[in-house]
Amino acid sequence: MDFTFSADQLAFRDAISRFLMTEAAPEMLREIWETDVGRSPELRAKIAEQGLMGLSVPESHGGMGLGDIDWVLLTQELGYYAIPDSLADTAYVAAGLLAALPEGHAVRDTWLPRIVDGSVRIAVGHPVNPWVADAHLADLVLLPRATPQGLELHGLTHDAVTLEPRPSIDASRRLATVRWAPTEATRIAEAAIAHPLWAAALNRGALNVAGQCLGLAQRMLDMSVDYVAQRKQFGKPIGSFQAVKHHLADVATKIEFAKPVLYRAAVALARGEAHRDALVSHAKLACGDAAWTAGRKGIQVHGAMGYTWEVDLQMFMKRAWVLDAAWGDRSLHKSRLGEALLG
Prior knowledge:
Blueprint: H1 7-23, H2 26-33, H3 41-49, H4 68-80, H5 87-99, H6 106-116, E1 122-124, E2 132-133, E3 140-147, E4 150-157, E5 162-166, E6 175-179, E7 187-189, H7 191-230, E8 232-233, E9 236-237, H8 242-271, H9 276-302, H10 313-325, H11 330-342
Parallel strand pairs: 1-3
Antiparallel strand pairs: 2-6, 3-4, 4-7, 5-6, 8-9
Helix pairs in contact: 1-4, 4-7, 4-8, 5-6, 5-7, 7-8, 7-9, 7-10, 8-9, 9-10, 9-11
């Protein structure tokens, strides 16, 4: 069997990397972090122009109909550049929820084309997330409602919810508690249809942040390598010292061991394999661990200045800390993995 990505998939990844390299430079990240909303309409418009919003939308609604394996490459690039936009939340997680609704469903037909043209932001709540990211800018908020039969799917416009902002160390990812009242008008799908959709959304959300964590780990490693090659002590670059080499080798090892775990989870999700929940949780744990290690070792080799606003490392490190707890914390994913192994 051929376990490598196709030439088209790698070319797609490289094209996205070149785009983000120009449009999401660290100096631009700082500017967006300091805004009131933590987002850039100009960047969002450029993302839509590239066709990225329609990646998961079916071709019948104007999208490209791509799947989890294609997204696993894209999310790594989103992490590598710490993109200050909720692209994956709308175009991957929310689009997947809506696309799985029955054909001809009014909500499906109304919102999917708008995702493609980039005219909407959709925030997604889930029982595993105590707060909803980017709800303050969302045109539509997809929320679960627990019933004895399972989770229903509800959709509310921005004016139908009350938001309580919550502080976040990642200033470009604003969080809020969402207060709302379910009605027949807000219900998109009853539990019999919606409950499995929410289970799939959890896996997509976890795979999304796992990929971003892996990209963040690689970026922090690259930053640390560049720094230790330039910083000198005793007349030598500190990167020539054995202890520093060991720190960075630990990070490189974590990244290389996490990659196949992430890719295997994407394949399992794309194929609907029976153990996909466990494989996704394994990926979330492995990639989160790589990102935490990269941040910790990066701070060690940068010294105390790694925490300061002037050093780029702190932005990527803070994003890694926040995403590690998103779409299920370590306890939840260890439990899912443990149940699959020992249950």
